[in-house]
């Protein structure tokens, strides 16, 4: 007898909770459940729409390309790169380091929303340059070549 009363009380509490969630015009249990399910479905559709808008915003977002080179000590530099993602930018930058005779001591690369790289580069034995301006120009040139190549591929 007590369990029957407890179940009825719990059922009434749940019904009251459903009624407070959706403020139905009808007190029927089935109408309340349907209204709550409809409310959850509408929330799910709104969430999916917001996620689509966010993805479109990220696609259309243009990051200004930025290359900074700072000298740590006589033979090491810190390179910071930020630009739009896509293509083989990392490979191009590493090829530039190889051409200039620079060695990567430590690097951190991210391509989540845009391409970013922070690296410590050391001057190798067969160095061709240790000028910050030359390094900056070479990295910018490598990034620009990849971006122009991607745009040509998209056009054709």
UniProtKB/TrEMBL annotation:
Pfam families for the chain: bHLH-TF_ACT-like_plant
InterPro entries in UniProt: bHLH-TF_ACT-like_plant, TF_AMS/ICE1/BHLH6-like
Keywords: DNA-binding, Nucleus
Ranges for domain Plant bHLH transcription factor ACT-like: 66-143
One term of GO molecular function: DNA-binding transcription factor activity
Cellular compartment(s): Nucleus
Top-level taxonomic group: Eukaryota
GO CC terms of this entry: nucleus
Keyword DNA-binding set for record: yes
Name of the protein described by the UniProt record: Predicted protein
Taxonomy of the source species: Eukaryota, Viridiplantae, Streptophyta, Embryophyta, Tracheophyta
